[in-house]
Write a structure and sequence with these properties.
Helices cover 48% and strands 3% of the residues. The chain is an all-alpha fold and 385 residues long. It folds into two domains: 219 residues, Fumarate Reductase Cytochrome B subunit, CATH 1.20.950.20; 139 residues, no CATH class. The protein has a three-stranded antiparallel sheet with strand order 1-2-3. Helix 1 packs antiparallel against helix 2, helix 2 runs antiparallel to helix 7 and helix 4 runs antiparallel to helix 5. The longest helix has 29 residues.
Length: 385
């Protein structure tokens, strides 16, 4: 990253090559491409969910660093050097004799602002949804206000597709520039040089070099931190709710009495009417007598009703009139497991649909987060059917 003010005489008389895009510009450019691509491609692959969220956070960090560089970077990297005016004129001349720009042309200037804006929206909506649906990360408390974010997944996908669309247009424009207009936009993002009439080269000053070094260290440290299971950005808060002081005693009694035969299913998996129906007929609890002493029965029933799905606002919220006491017959369960072969629940390892803990490490918490599923165990069970 020393002085790169090298001038190369080209075959065109009076035209030289100036060093316009420093390594930090090109590094951030390809870092954003790589992290967004990995995050987007892994979005619908359950076994790669960790890749999706880690790359998503790294992409968000890259967006922030690019915005910072847009204020303190070299001349043509700064936002006030962007050319926004004349975009219509530029687009109409794209297949003709278009004007040559040293820095960003009007189309790429607008595209960069849109990509950074949608990049922020993609990451922010993803973190919100990660908290609201997975009870994880910095927005984990939103898990219990799910009705406000039930469209979060759709918005996250919409923003991601908008960003992909802008990226695709930007890429197509670069191809037109290279192969039709014989421009050097793509080449300049590989080697940093663009053709100019006079020397327009830029170089990093000592402060910018130090900032770039900090950027690299920050991204590397962030990557390592994201791999730490209890990092604040991605960690699960699955155990926090029922271990709070106000819930601890009642939950402990419920877990002792009901958890002695099966896992103590989270109360918010069923509505009040279903818990009432279940607790009123414990003598015939799925073929067993699960009767409790009167006082214990009353306390546990009150606890279950207090945190039922129609009281606690989570992704499991159901219609109040439902009296379906089998969690495995609820709409959420059926939708979540619709792609599985029913025979898998009769295997020796699982035995029953009710044994959620076989594949879900957080089953007892009631969160059922994607990153808590034993996907490799599930894959093995599928292969042995």
């Amino acid at each position: 990253m020393g002085d790169r003010r090298l001038i190369f005489q080209t075959m065109e008389s009076g035209v030289i090559k100036s060093y316009i895009w420093t390594f930090i510009n090109r590094f951030l450019h390809y870092f954003l491409i790589l992290t967004f691509a990995l995050s987007y491609l892994s979005a619908d692959i359950d076994t790669l969910f960790l890749v999706h969220i880690v790359c998503g956070v790294l992409f968000g960090a890259g967006v922030i660093l690019r915005v910072i560089w847009g204020f303190i970077g070299t001349k043509h990297s700064r936002f006030w050097d962007f050319n926004y005016r004349g975009i219509l004129e530029y687009l109409t001349s794209i297949l003709g004799n278009k004007k040559h720009y040293i820095g960003h042309n009007p189309a790429s200037s607008v595209a960069i602002i849109l990509m950074l804006g949608f990049g922020f929206l993609v990451v922010f909506s993803g973190l919100l949804q990660y908290g609201a649906e997975q009870n994880s990360g910095i927005f984990a408390p939103l898990f219990f206000t799910y009705s406000y974010f039930y469209m979060g997944d759709d918005l996250h996908e919409f923003f991601a597709n908008c960003l992909l669309f802008i990226v695709a247009i930007h890429f197509c424009g670069s191809l037109i520039d290279k192969f039709w207009s014989k421009g050097d936009a793509i080449d300049s993002m590989l080697n940093g040089y663009k053709r100019t009439q006079k020397d327009e080269s830029v170089s990093l000053n000592p402060a910018q070099k130090a900032i770039f070094a900090f950027f690299l260290l920050f991204l590397f440290a962030l990557f390592l931190y994201l791999l730490y299971p209890k990092n604040i950005l991605l960690r699960s808060s699955a155990q926090d709710f029922f271990t709070q002081d106000s819930n601890k005693t009642a939950f402990g009694e419920y877990k002792q009495e009901c958890g002695s035969c099966h896992i103590a299913y989270a109360p918010f998996l069923l509505p009040k009417s279903a818990w009432d129906s279940m607790m009123s007929d414990l003598e015939n609890h799925f073929g067993d007598d699960a009767s409790l002493e009167e006082e214990t029965h009353a306390r546990i029933a009150a606890f279950l009703e207090k945190y039922a799905s129609d009281v606690v606002d989570t992704k499991f919220t159901q219609q109040k009139e439902s009296q379906q006491i089998a969690i495995t017959k609820t709409p959420y369960w059926e939708i979540a497991h619709r792609k599985l072969n029913p025979k898998i629940f009769t295997t020796k390892a699982i035995k029953s649909k009710a044994n959620c803990q076989t594949c879900h490490k957080d089953a007892e918490s009631g969160i059922f987060a994607k990153n808590a599923v034993e996907y490799f165990k599930l894959k093995s069970l599928r292969e042995n059917l």
